[in-house]
Design brief:
- The protein is mainly alpha-helical.
- The chain has 6 helices and 4 strands.
- It has 2 domains: 148 residues, Helix Hairpins; 68 residues, no CATH class.
- 79% of the residues lie in helices and 5% in strands.
- A hairpin with a 6-residue loop joins β3 and β4.
- It is rod-shaped, with a radius of gyration of 40 Å.
- The two termini are 19 Å apart.
């Protein structure tokens, strides 16, 4: 087989090995992301509950201020009742007192209702905070495991990168440029074997002339259908024979 073709086949195998780590890296990162999403969701729920509690607490304060104002209003009405001089004034004060008492009742009922809502929301918050604590521990554990996996992968990739640098340094630059050009669109199938007289990149059968050139292996041959670099898989060919 042509020396340059041998080098390209070897380089292609190195690139495949490097890229084979991508799914493992993504899997490790996805594990962390999934758990972190759970933490984020619970955190958002807690923040939402705390906002409701805060808003309700603000409303309670407002109603308490209203109650203080209404109490003063009722005291003032009682004072006026002692000095009224006409039935008309009495009716007006009576209506004012009735309206004030209705407002007072409403304010007290709202304070009670909002207090109950806050108690439920606080209980929900405490439950979520306990869940958040468990999830946070889980995330840290997963991060530690994933980090070990990623560190191991990085070490293996470093070894392959060094091997790739050594391999690239011996390849003719024009041939390397051609390989990289094909690899841009073909990825790890830039260099593929020919089996049963078919390109194992596009799986199309190649003509006899091209197949003969691939068998000879004297030149770098591209698939006439897809343009991938072809080489003869000797081991498979011997088995098929």
């Amino acid at each position: 087989m042509n020396k340059h073709l041998v080098e390209l086949v070897e380089l292609s195998k190195i690139d495949k090995s490097v890229d084979s780590f991508t799914p493992q890296i993504e899997a490790a990162q996805n594990k962390i992301a999934r758990e972190q999403n759970k933490v984020d969701e619970v955190t958002q729920k807690i923040e939402s509950l705390q906002k409701i509690i805060e808003d309700n607490s603000g409303k309670i304060v407002t109603y308490e201020e209203q109650i203080t104002t209404i109490d003063e209003q009722l005291k003032d009405i009682q004072k006026k009742n002692k000095i009224i001089t006409s039935e008309r004034e009495m009716k007006a004060l009576s209506m004012e007192e009735e309206l004030a008492k209705e407002k007072l009742t409403f304010a007290n009922e709202e304070i009670e209702r909002l207090g109950k809502v806050n108690n439920v929301k606080k209980a929900d918050t405490e439950e979520l905070e306990a869940t958040l604590e468990e999830l946070s521990v889980s995330v840290e554990d997963i991060k530690k495991v994933a980090q070990k996996e990623l560190s191991s992968i990085e070490k293996q990739k470093e070894g392959l990168y060094k091997k790739r640098v050594d391999s690239v340094s011996t390849i003719d630059q024009k041939i390397l440029a051609f390989y990289e050009k094909v690899r841009k669109w073909a990825g790890n199938t830039a260099v593929v074997a020919v089996k049963k007289q078919a390109c194992y990149g596009c799986y199309m059968k190649i003509n006899d002339k091209t197949y003969s050139e691939v068998i000879r292996g004297e030149e770098i041959i591209g698939c006439p259908h897809c343009g991938r670099i072809l080489y003869l898989d000797r081991e498979t060919s011997e088995v098929e024979a």
